[in-house]
């Protein structure tokens, strides 16, 4: 089972207020960009205008929070009733 098949086993309840925010001005001077490599849901992408982040689809693993050494990421769990839902079984 590849990552896309695995991601189809979860679903998300979106919140208008994202639980993770990224200070992109800090990202401009980041040479390592660990966030692009550690996120299992590929929520971080590099576009022409720089790092982009989409909170919907986040698995709440915390890897980006730990890997970003520049302090660009403000990380919280989603508010109650929002976020990822894992389908078990
Ligand atoms: S690792 Fe942190 S500072 Fe670097 S690009 Fe990613 S979010 Fe921005
Ligand atoms: S918490 Fe995990 S799944 Fe969510 S954006 Fe960060 S690395 Fe990706």
TrEMBL record:
For the 4Fe-4S ferredoxin-type domain, which residue ranges apply? 49-78
- List the keywords (alphabetical): Electron transport, Iron, Iron-sulfur, Metal-binding, Transport
Question: Which top-rank group of organisms is this from?
Answer: Bacteria
GO MF annotations, alphabetized: iron ion binding; iron-sulfur cluster binding
Query: What SUPFAM superfamilies does the record point to?
Result: 4Fe-4S ferredoxins
Per its UniProt record, what PANTHER family does this chain match? FERREDOXIN-LIKE, FERREDOXIN-LIKE PROTEIN YDIT
**Record's protein name:** Ferredoxin-like protein FixX
User: What is the scientific name of the source organism?
Assistant: Moorella mulderi DSM 14980
Traced from the root, the source organism's taxonomic lineage reads:
Bacteria, Bacillati, Bacillota, Clostridia, Neomoorellales
């Amino acid at each position: 089972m590849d990552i896309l098949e695995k991601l189809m086993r979860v679903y998300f309840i979106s919140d208008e207020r994202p639980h993770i925010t990224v200070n992109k001005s800090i990202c401009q001077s980041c040479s390592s960009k660990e966030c692009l490599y550690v996120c299992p849901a590929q929520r971080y992408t590099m576009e022409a205008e720089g790092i982009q982040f989409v909170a919907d689809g986040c698995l709440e693993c915390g890897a980006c929070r730990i890997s970003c050494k520049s302090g660009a990421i403000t990380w919280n769990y989603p508010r109650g009733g929002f976020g990822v839902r894992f389908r078990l079984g």
